[in-house]
Structure formats: structure tokens, C-alpha cells
Amino acid sequence: MEAMVHLDTTGVGDLVLLDPLTEDTLMRNLEERFQHKEIYTYIGNVLVSVNPYEPLPIYSETTLEEYKNCNFFAVKPHIVCCVSFNSYAIADDAYRSLREQDKDQCVLITGESGAGKTEASKLVMSYVAAVCGKGDQVNRVKEQLLQSNPVLEAFGNAKTIRNDNSSRFGKYMDIEFDFRGDPLGGVISNYLLEKSRVVHHVKGERNFHIFYQMLSGGSDQLLRQLKLQRDCGHYSYLNKEAPSLQGMDDAANFRALQDAMQAIGFSAAEVTAVLEVTAVVLKLGNVQFQAGGAESCGIQEDRVLREICQMIQLDESVLEQALCSRTVEARQEKVVTSLKMAQGYYARDALAKNIYNRLFNWLVSRINENIKVTTTEHRKVMGVLDIYGFEIFQDNSFEQFIINYCNEKLQQIFILLTLKEEQEEYIQEGITWTPVEFFDNSIICDLIEDNKGGILAMLDEECLRPGEVNSATFLNKLNQTFKDHRRYESRVTQNAKRISDASLSANSFRICHYAGKVTYNVAGFIEKNNDLLFRDLSQAMWKAKHALLHSLFPEGDPQKASLKRPPTAGSQFKASVVTLMKNLYSKNPNYIRCIKPNDTKEPVVFTDALVRSQVRYLGLLENVRVRRAGYAYRQLYAPCLQRYKMLCKETWPHWKGSARDGVQVLLSSLPIDHKELAYGNTKIFIRTPRTLFDLENRRRQRVEELVALIQATFWAWKYRRLFQKMRSSQILISAWFRGHAQRKKYKQMKTSALLIQAYVRGWKSRRLLRELKEQKCRTQAATMISAHWKGYQTRKQYKKYFRSGASERITKFIYGSLVQKFFLGLKNNLPSMTVTDHAWPPAPYKFLTDTNQELKKIFHHWRCKKYRDQLSPQRKAILEDKMCASELFRGKKSLYQKSLPQPFQGEYLGLDGNPKYRKLQTTANGKLVMADRVRKVNRGDGKASPRIFLLTKSHLILADPKAAQPKTVITLSDIIGVSVSRYSDGFFVLHIKESSTASTKGDFLLISDHLIELITRLHQTILETTKQKLKLEVMDECVVKFKQGSIAVKMVEAAEKQGAMPVCKKKGSHRLEVLVQ
Description:
The chain is an alpha+beta fold and 1077 residues long. 47% of the residues lie in helices and 16% in strands. It is built from 32 helices and 31 strands. The strands form 8 sheets. An 8-stranded mixed β-sheet has the order 23-22-21-20-26-25-24-27, with helices on both faces. A hairpin with a 2-residue loop joins strand 1 and strand 2 (46-50). The N and C termini lie far apart (109 Å). Residues 1-8, 69-74 and 81-88 have low confidence and may be disordered. Residues 10-700 form the Myosin motor domain. This is Unconventional myosin-Ia. Keywords: Actin-binding, ATP-binding, Calmodulin-binding, Motor protein, Myosin, Nucleotide-binding, Repeat. One of its GO terms (cellular component) is myosin complex. InterPro entries: IQ_motif_EF-hand-BS, Kinesin_motor_dom_sf, Myosin_head_motor_dom-like, Myosin_TH1, MYSc_Myo1, P-loop_NTPase.
């Protein structure tokens, strides 16, 4: 593959052409390009990317079009340029090689955390999606592949001290294409999610993005459903902090996550289930334990546990027992032991980590189901590897150990494949290969992964060994095994060599990686490698009725229980790395080496020491030397001839022979030492960059000469063309002018001739018209005279046959026609069916006035009947009550108008719900019509006392409200009548027959808040019982009979408002005055 040359960019675009080549010149070149926003630099086919920590305008569609099918000298290095002649490097070269050469490709993106690996992988996938074919199926596959990124980032990325969007898992995606280069689908493999982050992260970092996105972007209804609070400070697993991340909108990212899951193919139920399981993990951190004794513990607060169990549909006692105890099987016996408080917290955290890890694996499998290829046709594969960068922290644990082991393997494949590719190219081109010395990190890989004596093998052996096993025994074993290994250091081995190293603690060891020395703290190595989850917890999760959570723990099924020890985390990761390396070796590699310019994540800040250390452990200088071994630059003959052919007269402007011969003729004509050149089978090789720069300078001078010649030729051609155009224009204008003058003269003559012809034709036509009109008039006159004469003769002949009553029949016919017309018009103009609509069309003729009024009445009666027929029985009863009240009070009492909007309830006391009134219910005997509270006016002093008013089908009862005992029972037939005033008061007089048993006390003076309803129901009940109407008198003065005699009661309207109740005043011994409103 050909190297890139970019002489028109800042610095040197390809480090292979850097002269002189030293570490300092390489650093200066990278810094100079970085300061000028040139973040991409090549080393042959390897792209070096420096994280700018700011958005740059180099990823637009316009930029992409500039890089497609463009000469490689004309563009700057880019993450998506090809390293061949057509630009748009790593992604474009990989894609074109896959499509045109049928070679499986892989893009390896490496670098430490925060160097921009995740963004680089996104750009590669975006470019592939942009340049491949179109179509509904292709667009759907591209959308699903691209939308998998937001989902995996939300659940697998987190903020670390070095990176705001650090991938805490390794991802390798195989994108499969058809023979046209259109994507068919893909497969995603994930490696070692950092699940310990779920339960613990250092201050200044964050947990996985999904927790903050769910709390910030979830709707209030969703959070209520998940039993969550929006404040991050409520959750222990979030360090009870509410960190705000600059430049990251968690709420918007949550909405993007939901859209991405929908685009991939997740159903709404699956999305809800995933969020519920995520909420369970978050809430597990709030489960607190309390000591139940020296050797046991219990749940401190049941509310959190209850909410978790409600979400996963599990009995609280099952989960509580699984968290606070452990079942051990020994010799076919089960022994239940209680856990200490520390063990309880360990079990809780282990459950949270396992749920989240299994949920993440389920998400990857679910995405794979949707993007997998279902066809059996031949497929091509492009792999994109985005995996953890090399990590060196203050405190490095088991996670950093296996992450750095993976990076060692990637460095090994990078060196071997780069050398292999370089050597194969030399052999293929027939050029003598010069062996290159390089650092082989196989010794470090063997130190870690050797099956018999490697650190991982000894860690597994220590985990399986019976007896007391801890970090100290593991470290002692390492010290004994690797005491003479030059890449392994610890305090014990250093002391044995009489070397004092204060940076090594007693519980740590150090490995000299290719990237530098890393000290690992062995605390937690055994536990994290075992990664044990108590069987009780697995069985409890399997018992949950939550479908997704149940499916994540198949080993919890008692029917499938196995006592086989699960594989350790280290062995699983090692097997995954072996599979990954085998996959990468089978594909053509393309490299992106990412560099972090500073630790503060600020743009334009270039920390020399930090970048220099990365340049060293990435082996960039060594990579440049490998590329420059023998010959620094190589290019295919055809593009080389095309670029430099203007330097030789024999090859300019066209060469008719082969491209190889043309290049030989071209370079032989120039003063270049033959030792600087080597002619391969398909490419020209140039030894030093100085020769290439000399070629470029000669080309630049020659181009300037050609430009001047082209300009001179162009201006001569332009002005000659201008003169010819002016001459042609003058001839054309003359011809057009003469033609225009003749056409104008002809048009005038033609217009005159036409005008004369028109006048002549008009005169002839008018003369003919006059003659025709005269002839027509004569004909009409003769016809009319003939008709009148014939009519006269006919009338004279048939006059004797005419009837004397013809005028009457004609009159009837005319009236009948008018009536018919009236009815037809009325049919089309009938008013609406609303009973309150009194509109009616007027009579068109005076003789129809009475008929029109009668029809109006008939239509109104019919319309009212239709309205009554559609009423329900309850509504009819209500309207009948209101009609009865209208007949009794309308236009008589002012209170009636106020009672119209008030519905008649009948029962105002709540007898059924009050046991105090049980005896009154018995008295009513199921025939109750109305129950209300009234006030009885004392005959002696005019004061009012409360009474309960009960109206039944046969009696009227007045009862004491305190004792709930009937005091007066009046038969309905003994009621003579009722007297009321015309005002808006509730005062009325109940007149009783003298022969009645209740007449011993005389008539009753009562006050009611529901006077209209009370008297209406009394009237209806008496009419129904006695078949007689109630006598109602509306007057301002009436006579009331009492036991001692009669008094006159006069209703007087008060001048001022006296309150809601009428006021009774005694005026002498035989007069009572009632003040009403």
C-alpha cells in the first residue's frame, strides 16, 4: 500500500517523509499540526489522530464529497481518507479493498483512555454508511448499525477522570456486506464490561450514563412507574451526588436512546423491561443492612426492598432471605448459614453487578438478533475494534491488569502485521528486504497468558486451591515464580536484587509493559477473578415473574442446578482475546493510533511530556523506521507518471507506452542518482524524502511555467473569440435591421389592405341585413293577421259550447295550485326540532293565515310528543314534578323562579345512612315521599323550633329531631289546604280539618327551605291518595285556627334584608305579623 504525501499542509502530513527523523522532530511536527487544527497525520497506512477536545468543521457532507475520488496530493490527512490515491483514508481504503479486492478488512483503533477512540469508531461507521448504496433495506440496516452506538454508549460508557465518555467495555463489530458493497447486517462482540463501576466509582467520576440519563430525561409518569426520584443524591450507587457533566445533556441523550432502541427494533414492552431492570440495580444500592447478632444481619428498611420486589414481582421474604443468608450443599445435605453484615453488603453488590452485566450482554444479543444477516449469499466482512485504551492509574487493580493485557496483544498484532505487510510488499515488488530490529513484546504476553506459568494461570490455580486463599498467598506465588523475570518487579524481588524502591508497596507487583511500567495492587484480584454469585441469589432472581430478569438467570432453575464451578473472569477474558486475535489475523488490518494531547481535556493545549510518552509506548517512531527501511516512499507507476510527466518532453503531454517505461524515461531524464530509485513490478520506490521533495519542487516550477503558457494561450484564444463574436454580431445585426425594416413596411401594407376589405365587407353585410329584416317583418305581420282571423272564426264557431261555471273551476284550480305551492314550500322550510324554537314561516297569502297558525300548533304538538317519547322514565318523572310546580306557583309566588334550576331530591336527611332515624324509617314503612327539616312557628310567641318533616303515601309526620320520635301524625285526607305568600320566603300554613285527631292543636305554621318541592309533592301525594286536588291559596293575609281560637296572619315584605328565615312577630292576642323577603 502506498504512502501518502502531503506537502501543501502544515508540517509533514506523512511522517515517513519527515527529514531528519528523530523523536524531537516527530514531536514538533505533531504539535505544529495540532496547533493549526491539523489533528490527523499518517505513517504510511497508519493514521495518527490527536484528540482536539473541540468540534472541528471537517466531518460535513461537503468535506466527504471533497475527499471522494480526489488525487491524494490535493487533500489533507483525514480519519476517513484512504491511504491510496483516492482520498478519505482508513475507512475509504478499507471499504474499497473490501468491495473491489474481496478482502475482509478490520479497523484497529488503539490509544489510552480519553484519546478519542470511541469518536473515531463512530466516524468510520458513519463514513461507511454514507458511501455505500441506497435503498429501503440498505438504509434500514445502516440505521440499525449506527443506532447501536447510542444504546451501547448509554449502558457501557461512563465519565472517568481522563475521559467524559470513556468506553468501559470492549466492542468489536463485524459489518457484513454483499457483493455490491451494501451492508447486510452485523455482529457485535463485547469484552469485559467494568461492572464493578456499578457499585463503586471514585470521586470526580460517574457511574454508567444510563442511570443519569434515566433520572434526567425520564418523564414524571415513567419515574413513578419505576419508583424512582429525579434527584441523584438519593442513590448510594451514584455516590449520593448530582454531578453535572459539561457538554453532555443527559435528558436529550435519554430521548436519543429511546429513539435508537425503537429504530433497532426493540418493542415498547422490551424498552420498559430494560428500564425496570436498570431501576432495580440502582435501588439495590439503597438496601441497607443492620446487625441481627454477632453472626447474622437483616434488612434495615423494608420500603426499598418492597419497591424492588413489586417491580420484579417477587415475594419480599424470598429476596430478603437470599440477601441475608446462604445455602451450602455438602454431601447431599443443605445447610443454611446467616451472613454477617459485611457479607450481606457483598452479596447485595454482587447481585447488582451481575444483573447489570447480564442485562448488558442481553442488550448486545438483542441488537445482534436484529442486525444479523439472514441470507446465505457470499458475504464480505469489515471489523471495527473499539476497545479500552492502555490505563495507568494511581491505584491499578484487576480491571486495569486485563485491560493492559489486551493492549499488549493488540500491540503485538500491530507490530507483526505491519512488518509482515511491509515484507510482503517488498517481496511482491521484487525489492530486496532489509531486516528491521524492533521490540517484540511476546515476552510480556507470555508472562501474563502462558497456560502453565502465566499470571492468569496462577491466578486461576490460586482461586481453585483448597485452604486459605488471599491476595498475599497469590503475590507470594508470583514472587517465587517470576523472581528472575526481567519484566516483573515486586518489593520482594527488588530487595533480593538489593534495589530499594519505595514506590512498590508490600501488596503490589509491577509489570514493565510496552507502554511503560504499571504497578498493580493485588487486593481484590482473587474476588474479582472468582466473580461468584451465591446460588440463593440466582434462584431468587429466577423466581421473579419479571420476564426479562427471569431470563437473565437460567442457572437459578432448580431443575437445571449444577454444582460445576463457573469459569473465572480472567480465563473468560483470555479466551475472548484469543478469539479476537484469531479474527484480526484473518483480516487485512487498518490502523488508527489515537493520542491524548493533555490531561485537562482542553483544546489547543499540547502537553509535550504526555504526548511523548504515548508516542513511545505506541511505537510511532519505530513504526516510521519500519516504513522507511530501505525506501521511504513508493507509488504505483500510473499515478506517478500522471503527476510528474510534465518534467520530461518525451512523456509530456501524452505517453503512448507502458506506465513503467514512462516512469523510467521520465526519471532517467532528471539528475537523480540511480541508487535513490528502485523499480518494482508495479511501483516505483524512492529511498529518501529529499529526492521526493526535489521532484515536487521541479514539478512546482514546471507547473508555474505551464500555467503561464496556458494563460497566454487562453487570453489569445479568448480575445480572438471575442473579435469573431463582435464581427459575427455586426453582420447579424445588419441583417436583422434590414429584415426588420422590410417586415415593418409589409405589415403596414397588409394592415391597410385588410382595413379596406373589412369596410367593404361590412357595407355589404349591413345592406343584406336590412333586406332580411324587412322580409322578416312582412312575414311576421302576415302570420299574425292570419292567426287572429282564424282565432276569431274558431271562437265564433265554438262559443255556444262554453260552460257557464268555467270561471269557478279556474278559480278553484288557481287556489289549489297556490295551496299546493304553499305546502311544498312549507315542507322545505320547517323549523328545527327544538321545542323552544317558536320560529314558523309566515303565510304567503292572506287567505292561508288561519291555516298557517293551525299547522304551527299541530307541528309544535307533534314536536313536543317526539321530545317526550325520547325521555327516560326518570327524566319524565322529574319534568312532571316541575310541571306540577309550574301549575301551582308560576306567576303566583316569587320563590318559584329561584327553584327552577334546583333539582327535586325528595330525601334531604340521609335516613338510610343514619341509624338514629331507624325508627322514623319504620314509621314511613317504605312509603316515604319526602324527608326534610322544617321549622314550626309557635302560636304563642312566634318563635320557631326545628322539626323533621316526613311525607308518606298516607300520612304527614312531624318529628322531634333530637329524639327522632314522631310528635304529630296527620292523615293526608285531613289536610284542607295550604296558604303561602307571594314573596320569596319559605313560610306556609297547613290547614287541618276540625274533625281530624290532629286538629286539637289547630293549623300548623311551618317554614321550609324547599317550599316549592314540599308543596308540589304534597299536592301530588294528596291527589294520588284522595283523588282530590290540594287547595293552594296565595295571599298576603290568612286566618289560622288554633285550639283557643283564630288569629290573623299577615305577610309583610321587609324593607331591609332580615336574613334567610322569615321573622314572626306577635301583634296583640289575635294577630301575627311575618316579615319576609
